[in-house]
Write a structure and sequence with these properties.
17% strand, 15 helices, single chain, 17 strands
């Protein structure tokens, strides 16, 4: 019984609509109702000849708490609020928002749900504390729902579904990814497919959704929140819109599984804080690969998800070397060499970052931008052949620094390192390789590095007293792509970017 009550308090939304009488109930009232019904079921066990087990009774209790959740675009006016539901009845209010809520609740009952949740009326938006908690819990609520009902208010037929504005809104990204079961309905509340779950692998609409959102079907069907795949997730959000600029960040909190206080009125700083929260959980440097306008708080941090719209979906990744077999466990072993700075953090002096630096100069002769005519980043082939001269019209002619941010840590010491060979010999990996096999694997690794393009950004040195190396990132249309020098990267240096 305690488990059911903990589930109600920790996994259900704070308020739900009780569909049999269409009343809005808080978790305390839901818990009291569940307790009364559970006690009644347990008493009923002793009177019947075929007594269900306690586990079966508890399972029935959990199933009775299943709720439907609504995903939709808000109307410009007329959406019912939490206060409206306590003062009005559904039959006496003809407003479009109440009609939409009524149709949603009817569908929820048809899909076997006893409870329903809608963001318009199940959150008391007059309470800043409740709004804060709801926004941070939203992903979990959509994930725990028995079914997510998506209302496409601008869609008539399946063929036009992908053009619906629902696919362009910031909040609907997590509402697409989080639920395990989802059903799309058109403007007349008719199902767009005959499928039981529009996320099913054979769903008629799944491929179209993947195409319009640029999200692979496997992630639409089974998505796990976290701070991995940063560039992919930012790209999914890059072309979406929100009425409040802060929502571009708040709508990604659940997707990246980070904690962020809600503070409407802070503007673009919300996205800056989101990126810092991601950095705290992940040492990956992917967040630094963007182009466009920098945050007002730090020139190395992007101002909005739009800055990632042209970023690669992932950096040219490091090799996962598969060594077979593992003598101890009989399984393959995957070894990854990490990219870039391992200890970057925001400090009072700026963003602390370990980068490989090369001096370059900017000239106005035969000027061009940092991207080629196809919009792709410029490639620097010989970064170690000083002086490298970049020709660009919109920057002053002076000395700059190119910082390589995704070098391999074992390859940044002025010469080709043998640390990889040493790494795969370590007993921690439960394997012993003869010299020939170790050399062959490392040689393959070296050849891949020669072909790989690395990421560099242009920095401007800030002349200040003190021993810290302080820079600003130079705003440009594109980051650089840089080929590895023949003898490996220079030794990384710790810089502070403001």
């Amino acid at each position: 019984m305690d488990g059911a009550f903990r589930y109600i308090q920790n996994h259900l939304p704070k308020r739900l609509i009780h569909l049999p009488d269409m009343k809005l109930m808080e978790t305390t009232a839901i818990q009291e109702m569940a307790q009364s019904e559970l006690e009644q079921r347990l008493r009923g066990r002793t009177r019947g000849p075929l007594q269900p087990s306690i586990d079966a009774v508890m399972s029935e209790c959990y199933n009775s708490l299943g709720y439907a959740i609504l995903s939709h675009r808000w109307l410009s006016r007329g959406e019912p609020t939490c206060q409206d539901l306590s003062t009005k009845t559904y039959t006496e209010v003809p407003e479009a928002g109440f009609i939409k809520l009524t149709r949603f609740c009817q569908l929820a009952r048809m899909h076997g749900c006893r409870w329903a949740w809608a963001d318009t009326c199940c959150i008391d938006k007059t309470s800043s504390a409740e709004l804060d908690e709801s926004i941070r819990s939203m992903y979990q609520w959509y994930e725990n729902a028995k079914i997510c009902i998506v209302y496409l208010g601008n869609t008539e037929h399946l063929s036009g579904a992908v053009a619906d504005p629902w696919f362009t809104r910031a909040w609907t990204l997590q509402e697409l990814l989080a639920p395990k079961r989802i059903k799309f309905f058109n403007k007349h509340w008719m199902p767009l497919t005959a499928d039981d779950n529009d996320k099913a692998i054979d769903s008629l609409i799944l491929r179209d959704i993947a195409k319009i959102t640029d999200i692979p079907p496997r992630f639409i069907r089974h998505f796990t929140p976290g701070t991995d795949m940063v560039l992919e997730k930012m790209a999914w959000a890059s072309s979406r819109k929100a009425t409040r600029v802060e929502d571009m960040a708040y709508s990604l909190v659940g997707i990246f599984d980070v904690s962020l206080t809600i503070a409407y009125g802070e503007g673009e700083r919300a996205f800056y804080r989101l990126q810092l929260a991601i950095m705290e959980k992940s040492p990956a440097v992917d967040l630094l690969v963007w182009s466009g306008r920098a945050s007002k708080d730090n020139t190395m941090i992007a101002s909005s998800p739009k800055c990632f719209i042209d970023s690669p979906r992932q950096l040219d990744d490091l090799i996962d070397f598969m060594i077979t077999p593992d003598p101890l466990f009989g399984e393959n072993i995957s070894i990854r060499i990490w990219r870039g700075s391992q200890s970057h953090a925001m400090t009072s002096a700026g963003l602390r970052l370990d980068v490989v630096m090369y001096d370059v100069s900017v000239s106005h002769d035969n000027t061009f931008n940092f991207a080629n005519r196809y919009g792709e980043p410029m490639v620097i082939d010989h970064i170690d052949k000083n002086p490298v001269i970049l020709r660009c019209a919109h920057l002053p002619s002076r000395a700059y620094t190119v910082a390589i941010i995704d070098y391999e840590w074992d390859d940044a010491a002025d010469s080709t390192s043998n640390s990889f060979g040493a790494l795969i010999q370590q007993s921690a990996y439960h394997c012993t390789l003869d010299f020939g096999l170790a050399y062959a694997i490392e040689n393959r690794h070296f050849q891949r590095r020669k072909r790989r393009l690395y990421t560099g950004v242009l920095l401007n040195r800030i002349n200040e007293a003190g021993r810290l190396l302080r820079f600003q990132r130079v705003a440009s249309e594109k980051y650089f792509r840089v080929r590895r020098p023949e003898n490996g990267w220079k030794k990384p240096e710790t810089v502070y970017i403001i």
